[in-house]
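User: Fold this; tokens only.

Assistant: Input:
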Amino acid sequence: NTYHANGVSTLDLVLIQRHILKLKDLDSPYKVIAADINNSGKVTSADLLDMRKLILGIWTEFEDNNSWRFVDATQEFPVISNPFPFDEKINVLNFTDGAPGNDFVGVKIGDVNNSAAYNAQSKEESTVRNKQVLSLTLENAEFTTGDLISIPVTADNFDEMIGFQFTLESNGLELETIESGALEMSLQNVGQFSKKNALTFSWNSIDEVTVDSDEVLFTIVMRAKTNNNLNNTLALTSTITTAEAYTSSLEITDVEMNVREGEVSIEEVGFELYQNTPNPFASITTIPFNLPKSGNVTLNVFDITGKNILNQRGSFEKGMNEIRIENADLSTKGIMYYQLEFDGVVATRKMISM
């Protein structure tokens, strides 16, 4: 019950989705068992949601299932599409003859295209790929701390594709949102790993999709946490989610990303006050804010009656900053309001102390 992600990819997600929609049934009862991600005894769209979390690295293992299941090899399945329930135990009454003929079939949960590596010899075979490479393209841009950067993603050869997945290392940048273009994309297609400075992507379609090279596939909107440029901060890798794409013929190809010179929309952010984290908090919380220029800031915290229970002042640099507050500094608990003033402008948010 280890390495749950073994053999599980966005291509499996495509095949399971086609099975659910009755476009193309899975052709083996063992594949149907593998598709039941949440161990509910049926294959539904809920399995797709759980599977996507594993592919994106949000989950490291299935919450309601094991990595492998073992089915009595003598069990017959009159209906391929409904192998549930299935036998996972064999009772042996007499071991004197070695109990021959008692076998199990191993089923890797989530792997319906049989790509899992189940021993040292199979691992190399499972990674054979088409020589074609899906080439994604970004335009380079210089940015400063606090800037909001809209990064359109295009491709020179997005021809008859049904899915892709990859890891995007994004040192110095923080994801704000994902905007759809020619592809339907949202934050549900992305995993965020702030400690690893990385994002993971997984997209799929039941139909083949072709997009012209001048059309935007999707747009990544990010906040700059430092001064740099996209060429130095973004890199497509397989560190969390393996980088690969899938053609309409179900072939697996590599994915690469090229950063070229061009124009990217960069919005210089003004004074902004963000939600404290964590919230609610028991001991310490952090209040982040952005300044359009260096200057003095005043922080006030009020209880629900309007009484001022904390006042702090300080000088901060242009860009993203933060103020830490300890519960011990506050004379009350429960719902409070924090107010930040900069250059004559006041912003207010609510927080909860436990």
